[in-house]
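User: I'm writing a short methods note and want a consistent example. For V-type ATP synthase subunit D, I'll paste the sequence; you return only the structure tokens, no commentary, since I'll be parsing the reply automatically.
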Amino acid sequence: MAEPVSPTRSTLLAKRDQKRLALQGVELLKNKRDALIGEFFALVQDSLKAREALNAAAKEAYFSLLIAKAFDTPEAVESLTAAPLEVDIQVDSLYGVKVPRIQAPEGGGELPFSPIGVGAKTLEAAAAFRELARAIVAVANTENRLRRIGEEIKKTNRRVNALEQISIPEINEQIKFITDTLDQRALEEVTTLKRIKAAILRREAEETGEVSAHIEKGAGL
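Assistant:
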């Protein structure tokens, strides 16, 4: 139920302005939601490609690991497992939404350690796992952005529904109440003025002794 309002003309003007702003807000939120949905589906394609690249990189990395273990000693293979992969995290503003962007450094598979003491197959496996790590970061980036944008779409949609289904109908109800009240007051004022006018005409007629048919009708005689 709409909250009680003062049925005055100033309140009516304020409520009409409030409705206009609410309608503008709905339009802006819908435009934002549509833009985010477009971005979401574009990211879905990127996410699918990243997933495919991850699967391919995982197969290549673990196959290379098996080959490395066959051609090199377990100690040599395990000695290359502690190499970290640094990532760069930035925050993009997407239609006012803060969305993190995670990126791994680009490279041709170079290794951050000395290859002395390990075989070629082990080096190939280490490079393959570096590529696998980059693929994991790419998947994390797209899926994290998808999650953030998806949450914002839901939030924006809830705001649109709240305006369209609650706020605007409530304002319309308040406007109708104020308008009906003002119309009723105006009608009562017109009726009162007619009665006053009729009473004045009747008194004037009684004072002058001239009572016309029109005056009698106006006075309710």
